[in-house]
Amino acid sequence: MEQTEAPKKVRWLNRNIFGMGLASLFSDMNHEMATAVLPAFLSSVLGAPAFALGVIEGVADGISTVFQVWAGWYSDRIGKRKGLAALGYFITAFSKASFALATSWWHVLLGRTVGWIGWSIRSPVRDALLVESTTPATVGRAFAFHRTLDTLGAILGPLIAWLLLSHVAIRSIFLMSLIPGLLAFLCVVFLVKEKARIPDRRDTWESLQELPRNFKKFLLPIGLFGIANFAPTLLILRAQDLLTPGFGAAHAAAFAVALYTFGNVVYALVAYPIGAWSDKHDKKAVLATGFALFALLCAGFLFADAQRWALVLLFAINGIYTAIIESSQPALASTLLREHEHGTGYGAMSSVDGLGDFLSSITVGVLWSAFSPEAGFGFAAILAVLAAIMLYGMRLNAKEPA
Questions:
Q1: Spatial separation of the C-alpha atoms in residues 261 and 279, rounded to whole Å
Q2: CA-to-CA distance for 113 and 109, rounded, in angstroms?
Q3: How far apart are CA 91 and CA 122, in angstroms?
Q4: Which of 131, 200, 227, 357 could be cross-linked to 61 through a Cys-Cys bond (beta carbons 3.0 to 4.6 Å apart)?
Q5: Per-residue confidence at 386, pLDDT binned at 50, 70, 90?
Q6: Is 222 exposed, middle or buried (0-12, 13-18, 19+ CB in 10 A)?
Q7: What domains lie within the chain, and their CATH numbers?
Q8: Which residue has the higher pLDDT, 225 or 198?
């Protein structure tokens, strides 16, 4: 009687997943070291108004959206993704260091835009590589593991910046962020390997048109939530403003950075359990819950004051909602896309996110400056609730044709 070998179990935590996770850890250290001190740099060193921060984040997101579609589509077209991912990490590393040379807030805008272009090139390509390096049954935990390492970098980055604030100038912190940025680039070059793929010769527009119908439907609540989901630097700035009257500008800035770091610690603790949970349960409901939690966060900032315990709670919610969205959103997208369109699909999703971020950061910043911070947070809360309701009510069947 012939005996057949049991199929070999595929390890979800392999060299590619680990290598890309490590690259994101170092890259987020690079990004968050700069982000954590950016509000203080703009307001205290450059004397920029509050709306400038919203413009910087929003314009950078908006300009970078076209690169997300292009990078994802081009990686499908040539059948290769690793080189584009490495290029994106390299650009991002140097963009943050360029802040050290800024003498006006528009210089920061230029550097931030270049950095987001690098992020836009690497992000959809990296997500496609992650999906193709694991199995459908473990895609949630693969993304969650990746986002956990990413968030460890987001913890270490602000922590390092916070420790350095009282010893070196902010400009020096921007220069020091180049070290982890270059380590991220090297991780992709030496640790990540990609399998051979058949190139997809369709042009950009044809590839976008032929994405599955349900994936296109899915982009509607993603876009609506993107318009609500403003840059986290505005949370840091709001906490800093609330704390300044009682603690002084320097201590308020340091405590605001510590709050942001705490939120990232919460993220790191909950990201993997959430990803593993979403592998076994309804990813759509998990993601809708993340949208609703963001609305709760915005509602909390409507009534926030200088009470530190309340700010600690709000930044914990920030960590939880971010962990839900960043692990379950790409995992849910993977169930709606076919393999030959991973790059184009993730590029389209990143572009919709980026366009939403462009509108949200500018809108919230303008509402903040023209009326009050509460006007901006209220606007974001309403849109997030609508996005949660829209997503939860959708019927999404996997991989239906266009």
A1: 28
A2: 6
A3: 10
A4: 357
A5: very high
A6: buried
A7: 15-190+206-392 (1.20.1250.20)
A8: 225
How far apart are the C-alpha atoms of 122 and 84, rounded to whole Å?
Answer: 6
Residues in CB range of 230: below 8 A, 6 or more apart: 54, 57, 357, 360, 361, 363, 364, 365, 376, 380
Quick one: pLDDT at residue 161? 87
In three-state form (DSSP H/G/I as H, E/B as E, the rest C), the secondary structure along the chain is CCCCCCCCCCCCCCHHHHHHHHHHHHHHHHHHHHHHHHHHHHHHHCCCCHHHHHHHHHHHHHHHHHHHHHHHHHHHHHCCCHHHHHHHHHHHHHHHHHHHHCCCHHHHHHHHHHHHHHHHHHHHHHHHHHHHCCCHHHHHHHHHHHHHHHHHHHHHHHHHHHHHHCCCCHHHHHHHCHHHHHHHHHHHHHHCCCCCCCCCCCCHHHHHHCCCHHHHHHHHHHHHHHHHCCCCHHHHHHHHHHHHHHHCHHHHHHHHHHHHHHHHHHHHHHHHHHHHHHHHCCHHHHHHHHHHHHHHHHHHHHCCCCCHHHHHHHHHHHHHHHHHHHHHHHHHHHCCCCHHHHHHHHHHHHHHHHHHHHHHHHHHHHHHHHCCHHHHHHHHHHHHHHHHHHHHCCCCCCCCCC
- Report pLDDT digits (tens) over 106-155: 788 888 888 888 888 888 888 888 888 887 778 778 888 888 898 788 78
pLDDT of 8 > 60? The answer is no
User: How many alpha carbons fall within 13 Å on the CB side of residue 74?
Assistant: 13
pLDDT of residue 183: 95
Q: Given a cut of 50, is residue 4 above it in pLDDT?
A: no
* % the chain with pLDDT above 70: 88
Are residues 332 and 218 in contact, defined by beta-carbon separation less than 8 angstroms? yes
- Give the pTM: 0.73
Ramachandran region, residue 248 (left: φ > 0; alpha: ψ -120 to 50; beta: rest)? left
Rounded Cα gap, residues 81 and 7, in angstroms: 28
Type of residue found at 265: V
At 201, the pLDDT band (50, 70, 90 cuts) reads low
pLDDT at residue 310 is higher than 70: yes
Query: Could you read off the pLDDT of 66-88 as tens digits, one per residue?
Result: 788 888 888 888 878 888 999 99
